[in-house]
Amino acid sequence: MLEYLPRSKQHTELHLTQFGMEDCISGHYFGPAVRTHYLLHYIFKGEGIFEVGGVRHHLRKGQGFLICPHIVTYYQADEVNPWSYGWVGFNGTLAEPLLMQAGLTPSSPILHYDRDDMIYQYLQLMAQSRQSHKARETRLTGLLYLMLSLLVESGPETPTVQRESRAEVYVEQVIDFIEMNFSQKITIEDIAHLIGLNRSYLCSLFKQQMNISIQDYLIRYRMDMAAKMLGNTDLSIGDIARSVGYTDPLLFSKMFKKVKGASPKHYRSATALT
């Protein structure tokens, strides 16, 4: 079973280019050759060899190999116990980062997954997706994400963040949380709890890195978003206040004027004239 897929215009971050399964005959081989996309093979039974960069790997059930774009590789089924495998070809801007999370790189192309038969099941579901019409591409992309998630979950632990960059990581988490939740009623305690740090310690780290308190950063971010919304005259001041986390329009107007130097009404009028 082999199926090639057209280039995806919708899922540019990650998309399938082909997938299939095969019971290989004795000695079946491919290469030496290169591919223009990522190609991931997973062995269901049997054994064989995979060669890349002058290194030969003897592989069997529960293992697999990654072929990276533009790298010469060769693989061959065993003469006595030829392998059966499945494969997915894919590309996209997220392909390399996800593979790296799974510990798969050009210098480390061998995968190990023997927890269950989920990879086989996902390949079967890919084949069954032919029954879908309007949503097939989205379904296939979802199955590819699920398959890669198995490899990421079972892959090697990522290196611990170096001590000197730990503060930067926490600050980035605070900023991400604010950007995703500024429209909600959130507190500094909520942010500290999510990140897993003492409130005072987190506030101190953030102030040291950003030269602004978390509370002031949250207010400024909300007012920046409100200022953008004021350009939409279909939104009332009350609509905008609620959209940036304020249930009281008067309090919102007071905070907006404090940060932007003008009331929301006057800011909207001034913006309309420019």
From TrEMBL:
Keywords: DNA-binding, Transcription, Transcription regulation
Entries under CDD domains matching the protein: cupin_MmsR-like_N (cd06986)
Gene3D superfamilies: Homeodomain-like, Regulatory protein AraC
Family annotation (InterPro entries): AraC-bd, Homeodomain-like_sf, HTH-like, HTH_AraC, HTH_AraC-typ_CS, Tscrpt_reg_AraC-type_HTH
A molecular function (GO) term: DNA-binding transcription factor activity
Domain HTH araC/xylS-type: 172-270
Residue ranges of coiled coil: none
Protein name: AraC family transcriptional regulator
